[in-house]
Write a structure and sequence with these properties.
This protein has 162 residues and is mostly helical. The protein has one domain. It is 79% helix and 0% strand.
Length: 162
């Protein structure tokens, strides 16, 4: 009788611990799903912010408010931060913009450019202007296509400040 009572008590304890372990595993699964949902939402919000900026840059490039070389640098670099399925392969999808980016990416800008020798600065200007004039029409068309591509994605998520 003592052995039977101890066996029943042991079985009850084991069943209780197994139920508690199952409950903890279920809670862990729910927590991981919630984390994945939050991560996906954060990626979507970040991408929406990036697409809003790219939309503005594309508009500036299309309207000629900024040099195409500067636009290509900014758009190429900022689109590199897009995550998930909305990621863009610039070298494949927008070859003219990528070509101009690769031409001007290593050229000094800002204060570094002002500190260059005038002759070297003029050589860089000549290279940049030749590339811009050769690729101008193609880049403007690519900027229009990119703007259409990111605009619907930009409106997917309402970002509200709390």
């Amino acid at each position: 009788m003592n052995v039977t009572l101890l066996a029943i008590a042991g079985a009850v304890i084991i069943l209780g611990l197994a139920a508690y372990a199952g409950y903890l595993l279920l809670q862990l699964k729910k927590q991981k799903e919630l984390q994945q949902q939050h991560q996906a939402l954060a990626i979507e919000k970040r991408n929406a912010n990036i697409f809003e900026n790219v939309n503005i840059l594309c508009l500036a490039g299309i309207q000629g408010q900024c040099d195409l070389s500067e636009i290509s640098i900014r758009v190429y670099c900022i689109m590199d931060y897009v995550q998930g399925e909305d990621r863009v392969d610039f070298d494949r999808d927008y070859p003219a913009t990528a070509e101009l980016y690769h031409i001007v990416k290593d050229m000094p800008r800002g204060d570094a450019r002002q500190q260059m020798v005038k002759k070297e600065r003029m050589q860089h200007n000549l290279i940049r202007l030749k590339a811009e004039s050769r690729l101008n029409d193609a880049i403007v068309e690519e900027l229009k296509a990119l703007q259409k591509r990111v605009q619907p994605l930009n409106n997917q998520i309402a970002i509200q400040m709390v």
